Amino acid sequence: MGVRALRKSSLSWWARGLKPLLFKEVRELVRDPRIWIPFVISALIMPVLGLVIGASMGEAFRGAQSRVKAGIVVADPSPLAREVVARLLELGPARGVDLVVLNVSGVDEALSKALELGLESVVVLSQGFGKSLEERRRPNVTMLYVVRTLSLFASPRGARVRSLLEDVVAEHLISGAGVSLDLVKRPLEEVAVTYIASKGILLSGNVGMVVASLALPAMMVPVVVMIVAVGVVQMAATATAVENEERTLEVLLTLPVSRFTILLSKLLGSFAVALIGSLLSILGLLAYFYVLPSAAVSLGRPGLASLNTLVDAASLAWIVASLLVALFFAASLGIVVGALSSDVRIAGALSGPLVMLIFIPGYYIALADTLSLSQPLRALLYTLPITQPVILSNETVAARLPAETPLYIAASLAVSLLTVMVVSRAFTLETLERIQRALAGLWRRRRGATRGG
Q: At a CB cut-off of 8 Å and minimum separation 6, what does 136 contact?
């Protein structure tokens, strides 16, 4: 009898209170272009983020591998110096280096000539270069590098000229020893295998390339997660602020419905619309794990670690579940901001600092070694709804997810629901009007001070 009465009461609460309010929220959110157009545009951008990064890496790599124009200044008149120059001119084209002999004196003139001819580096064989070689000593040279563009992925192209010069000098020094230059430079036949201790996985390839291939996704994926959360906050804040402008929220608070039901309907409505808009973002997030390795293979770098072997389906499922909880919490924050704002402009002004509160811990997680953090701090980051998907996505790539991950997600959901319950206690018409008047006064004084300045 008690179970039947409880079920009947729950159905009545759903049919008479929550259901009509929830449908109203969804209809209004979908109809208002100020709500969904920016969010959809942001969601459409997410899936191509990995492709853009992969394309930029490819462009930088191809640029780094193109031919280098360099100059050489011979300040030493010795025959041995001229012999080295002749050898450089002979080997340069095969190494992708086009050398030009410059008849200048001094570094300043060499720099002017390099800028005039579009050279990327200049080698100056200093006085006494040939004598040092004869005495089997390191000769002095001056390397002038001209950097015209900066790229995150491209190494200095002028370093190729220095490598060529080092090979020519080393070739001369070992002449007559009966060994080849290649044997001296690479005395070992290495088969590189990298063991990722935190994942328990063996990967073939150079350790530097493997670590680099993991570090970039581990840093960029949290940024994508933060962008999605920020979009939900702004959408929910704008939607609630629009109701304040049109006085709809005041009418809702006078209805014979509990404040918790009103707040929950707004929260679920914003969450539903945000979830629809975030589907592309979530799909883009999943695709991101597989785009960069494909781009690396297309660049001829098979030694890069494949994220397919590092990120399993279970880890992706936990990330998606955590992201859903984060969207739920972000929607609740946005509703609070919108309810405290008398119009959309004030909601936008309040959303700015709130966005920074999301990004600051997110960037900290993206750049820090989370495995070295203390256990209480890691537990806190795993429990907070905003930081949880960030640290999950980071450690999915770099390490194993902790066994307590389901408990952390449940705790994060509990924090979100607790936030809704606490806010509903203060969700009264009188409280909102008092706070809105205070915020509006601060907004007007700020604008007045800005205009006066």
A: 173
- The secondary element (H helix, E strand) that includes residue 69 is strand 68-74
Q: Where are the domains of the chain?
A: 28-57+209-446, 67-190
Q: From the centroid of its chain, how far is CA 109?
A: 43
C-beta neighbour count of 444 within 10 angstroms: 11
The residue written with tokens 């008092």 in the block is 434
Task: Work out the angle at residue 276's Cα, subtended by the Cα atoms of residues 356 and 281, and round it to the nearest 5 degrees.
Answer: 55
**What token pair was written down for 198?**
């935190």
Q: What's the CA gap between 8 and 67, in Å, rounded?
A: 78
Name the pairing type of β-strands 68-74 and 121-125.
parallel
Each residue's pLDDT tens digit, 170-227? 888 888 777 777 777 776 777 777 777 766 777 776 666 666 666 666 666 666 667 7
We find that the CATH architecture of domain 67-190 is 3-Layer(aba) Sandwich (3.40)
Rounded CA separation 428/130 (Å) = 89
Query: Does pLDDT of 14 surpass 60?
Result: no
Please provide the DSSP assignment of 361-421 as one string.
HHHHHHHS-GGGS-HHHHHHHHHSTTTHHHHHHHHHHHSPPPTTHHHHHHHHHHHHHHHHH
Question: Lowest-pLDDT range, 132-136, 246-250, 443-447?
Answer: 443-447
Q: How far is CA 134 from CA 88, 168, 172, in A?
A: 18, 14, 10
Please state, in angstroms and rounded to a whole number, the distance separating the CA atoms of residues 363 and 71: 43
If we measure between CA atoms, which residue out of 100, 99, 97 comes closest to residue 65?
97
Asked if 210 and 197 touch (Cβ cutoff 8 Å), the reply is no
Strand-pair partners of 195: 202
Gap between the Cα atoms of 229 and 330, Å rounded: 6
Q: Give the number of other Cβ atoms within 10 Å of residue 337's Cβ.
A: 24
- CA atoms within a 13 Å half-sphere pointing along the CA-CB vector of 256: 2
CA angle 374, 380, 386 (to 5 degrees): 130
